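Researcher: I'd like a structural prediction for the single chain below. Treat it as a standalone chain; there are no partners to consider.
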Amino acid sequence: GLVTAGVVGRTRGVPVHGVSSLDAVARRALDELGAQEGQADPVVLVATDARRREVYTALFRANGPDDVTRLTEIIVCPPAQVAQRLAEQAPGQDGGAGSIDVVAGSGAVLYPELVETASCREALAPVSGDVLTQVRIALARLERGEELSTQPLYLRHADVQMPAARKRVR
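Model: Treating it as a single chain, here is the predicted structure.
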């Protein structure tokens, strides 16, 4: 998808900017959480389906009304390992799993145990980001002069393996 967007953008003379879908899920969850409670500075755990019984996950906090700040790197792991893996990235800090206010994303729907694992109050509805949310985030970041790379983020090693040396036939 990123390659196609880049090609179409170049041929049409339109700039193409990248925003992670996890960022969009986090922003939508923060919007929903703010509309519900008006809570100050909540932390959102985004967990989206990565297939193979794994989730893509990271912690986020609001960065103004239209953006988010990622508190941890995006990782891919089984749902049972989410809290441990996030705690390894930010031990004893706000990035730790104990400070999570809400879980959002398709992973929260597929793996309801994430709410318990993350020791948070609830799971929110946004299971995916939307284009308008990604545009809001992109505009906020461009306004600050940030570079929005369209390079894909690969979190797994390739499934394809080079064949071994040919066997000799006798």
